[in-house]
Amino acid sequence: MKKAWKWLEALLVAMMMLALVPQTVNAAESTQAPKVTDNYLKKVKEKGELVMGTSPDFPPYEFVQNVNGKSKVMGMDVEVGRKIARDMGVKLVIKTMDFDSLLVALETGKIDMVISGMTATPKRAQSVDFSQTYYKSGQNLIIRKSDKGKFHDYRSFGGKAIGAQTGSMQATLLKEQAKKSKIKTMDKTNDLILGLKTNKFDAVLVDTASAAAFAKNTDGITSIPSGLKIPSQGNAVAFHKGAKSLVKSANKSIDEIKEKKLVTKVYLPNVGKYIAKGKTKKEVKASNSMWAYKDFFIAGVGYTLFISVISVFFGFLLGAILALMRLSHNKIAHSIATAYIEFIRGTPLMVQLLFIYFGLGLVINIPALLSGIIAVSLNSAAYVAEVIRSGISSISVGQTEASRSLGLSKTATMRYVIMPQAMKNIWPALGNEFVSLIKESSIVSVIGVKDLIYQSRIVQADTYRGVMPLVITMILYFIITFGLSSLMKVFERKMNHD
Ligand code: ARG
């Protein structure tokens, strides 16, 4: 009999996994099915907005700027996007994410187009439709100033390491051509620059315009030609495969951009003043001081606290229910709870989050913040459930028997006799769980939720300073978690008094 239930549990886990997969696959097919007449443009016009996805770590294409304490995405790509949206008669909405998430977001309908200094490579063109090229740039290697004269182009690096952004064309180019070098990839360009400065690698490959912007703003680095054979395609706007109506409209706007030379004559000069920050060294220093970014950190703490408080609440609630289910004599309830707990504990939170945001996104569109809260709560529930279960099991059966024989109902026994004692036992373990929840909630930044980590990344990018924002972020997390554990201790002492 016991064996049979074990099997049932395993089956349930498998079913939970399968139940989710076919639906998403079907949904993907059905969105692509009616290809004959494409109504992408019509839909955009109905919404009244065109959603552009971008990874703002790539000046002058796109970067984040501190404008009176508010973060603003700027860059020539934003200007291009604005022009395309304006010509369609709609508003431009910008969604920021890591470069390697952009195409996934496009495919799953989170965004309508990608403008992110993206090169229209033939490989990408297999899964998206590109507009015509709006800008063409070469490829440069950024190196440390102290190495000037030592390296001339990619061939000088031999067995040394070169960095490139994850999912970028640069990473592919290097893999194909710089065969002797080690290629290291990171999600954000500013991390690459930091890696270069701290000797993790000896060069970083980026588009020429970006190399110039970084070299101008970061002490101790400079740029050299890459010497690589680069694809003939330039930067273009990516749309969902089959969104011909959007491509057509964008191409018309780009025709005008090219004809009037808007990129070089208007867009680049417009954003250029933000890249060459301030005029004197002192001005640059002031605009890059951490104090100038306090509002970013405050906003980040706000989001982190918000997500944590809600997730602790729902995680605890669901966890308590799961614990009772797992302890119950009802075999079905027991199996469902066990399967849930095992499945959630057995898969990474990161994957669960991406699955809720992108995977389920094919069926229903859940906004990033909500996706984050759901993922963190569901995840925490599994751990809380086990903590609570251990607490309940730690109370001897004698307690239940005594209280039942005194005439208390099952529920009353649980509520007034078992739970209060169990809570006391599990309090430190719960505290542990909540502290990890706060820290782990930082994962939501990968889908663009503006929590503390997300903000610190923005400050890093915007100030071209790598370490200070991290130190501040660390201190802020510590204050939050230490505050929580102190609060837990107060209650612990109270409980011990009762
Ligand atoms: N042009 C390169 C590519 O298509 C890099 C673009 C990186 N863009 C960015 N916003 N980080 O892969």
UniProtKB/TrEMBL annotation:
<dbReference type="GO" id="GO:0043190">
    <property type="term" value="C:ATP-binding cassette (ABC) transporter complex"/>
</dbReference>
<feature type="transmembrane region" description="Helical">
    <location>
        <begin position="296"/>
        <end position="324"/>
    </location>
</feature>
<protein>
    <submittedName>
        <fullName>ABC transporter, permease protein</fullName>
    </submittedName>
</protein>
<keyword id="KW-0029">Amino-acid transport</keyword>
<dbReference type="InterPro" id="IPR000515">
    <property type="entry name" value="MetI-like"/>
</dbReference>
<dbReference type="GO" id="GO:0022857">
    <property type="term" value="F:transmembrane transporter activity"/>
</dbReference>
<feature type="transmembrane region" description="Helical">
    <location>
        <begin position="467"/>
        <end position="487"/>
    </location>
</feature>
<keyword id="KW-1133">Transmembrane helix</keyword>
<dbReference type="InterPro" id="IPR035906">
    <property type="entry name" value="MetI-like_sf"/>
</dbReference>
<feature type="domain" description="ABC transmembrane type-1">
    <location>
        <begin position="301"/>
        <end position="488"/>
    </location>
</feature>
<keyword id="KW-1003">Cell membrane</keyword>
<feature type="transmembrane region" description="Helical">
    <location>
        <begin position="354"/>
        <end position="376"/>
    </location>
</feature>
<dbReference type="InterPro" id="IPR043429">
    <property type="entry name" value="ArtM/GltK/GlnP/TcyL/YhdX-like"/>
</dbReference>
<keyword id="KW-0472">Membrane</keyword>
<feature type="signal peptide">
    <location>
        <begin position="1"/>
        <end position="27"/>
    </location>
</feature>
<dbReference type="InterPro" id="IPR001638">
    <property type="entry name" value="Solute-binding_3/MltF_N"/>
</dbReference>
<keyword id="KW-0812">Transmembrane</keyword>
<dbReference type="Pfam" id="PF00528">
    <property type="entry name" value="BPD_transp_1"/>
</dbReference>
<dbReference type="InterPro" id="IPR010065">
    <property type="entry name" value="AA_ABC_transptr_permease_3TM"/>
</dbReference>
<comment type="similarity">
    <text>Belongs to the binding-protein-dependent transport system permease family. HisMQ subfamily.</text>
</comment>
<dbReference type="GO" id="GO:0006865">
    <property type="term" value="P:amino acid transport"/>
</dbReference>
<keyword id="KW-0732">Signal</keyword>
<keyword id="KW-0813">Transport</keyword>
<dbReference type="Pfam" id="PF00497">
    <property type="entry name" value="SBP_bac_3"/>
</dbReference>
